[in-house]
Amino acid sequence: MLFAPDHYNGFFYDVMPPFCLGVGATAIGDFASAAGDLLVPTELAEACAHAVINSGIDLAVSYNMQVDHGFAQPLEFLLGGLDRVPVLPVFINGVAAPLPGFQRTRLLGEAMGRFLNTLNKRVLILGSGGLSHQPPVPELAKADAHLRDRLLGGGKQLPPDERERRQQRVINAARRFTEDPHSLHPLNPVWDNRFMSLLEQGRLSELDAIGNDELSAMAGKSTHEIKTWVAAFAALSAFWPLAQ
To answer: Where is the Extradiol ring-cleavage dioxygenase class III enzyme subunit B domain (predicted)?
Structure first.
């Protein structure tokens, strides 16, 4: 099971769920990541969706989920490709307000974990996303007409030259940041280490009280990607207490 974010490559403001399970999924190959279909077991994904919804979590499903490097890179780097092992891909919104909070994300992960624990299978649970960071990500409230069109769904099938320009802007911003740490929102290693310690110690519920605005101010607007980590550790807790 892979919990991962999106970066306005598969999910847009025409329909922006907080959570979505891909019953079928295809990676677009952005930032030189792998492209193609993920190996999603259809019946297992459908059963997972029913179980999670019946547990009280309003989970969206997609039979044609488009995903980006947030999903592709973990599968490529850790497992050798998109189709090496069956995967249940779970999108968690980490960029487009209104965002899910820590508590709801934790409850999603717990529900997913309870389902996985019924399967009598060997399961690898992954969370994909960054710690404190804030690259140049567009915001609907500040968008001009062209960008607004892209955020409302026009960006799903970008022309290759436009996608390349978009990716290059992010790469250039990252390079500037290595030379001038004030060019973007600063990293926050104190928060990063505190967060990882809470995960390690199984103290996930202590994150519930941290609001989205507070998290953005502390560690950058893209730090909401760490909610994928929370979901993954919460799912793991269905198998044994994390504190052990």
So the answer is: 2-237
- Residue 220 and residue 128 in contact, taking contact as beta carbons nearer than 8 Å: no
Separation between Cα atoms, residue 132 and residue 18, nearest integer Å: 20
Q: Which residues are catalytic?
A: 69, 133
Which residues contact residue 60 at a Cβ distance below 8 angstroms, ignoring those fewer than 6 apart? 17, 19, 20, 21
Express each pLDDT in 102-133 by its tens digit: 999 999 999 999 999 999 999 999 999 999 99
For 185-241, how does the pLDDT look when each residue is reduced to its tens digit (9 = 90+)? 999 999 999 999 999 999 999 999 999 999 999 999 999 999 999 999 999 999 987
Closest by alpha carbon to 106, among 118, 114, 95, 98?
114
Please count the structural domains in the chain: 1
CATH number, domain containing residue 33: 3.40.830.10
Dihedral sign from CA coordinates of 10, 222, 74, 59: negative
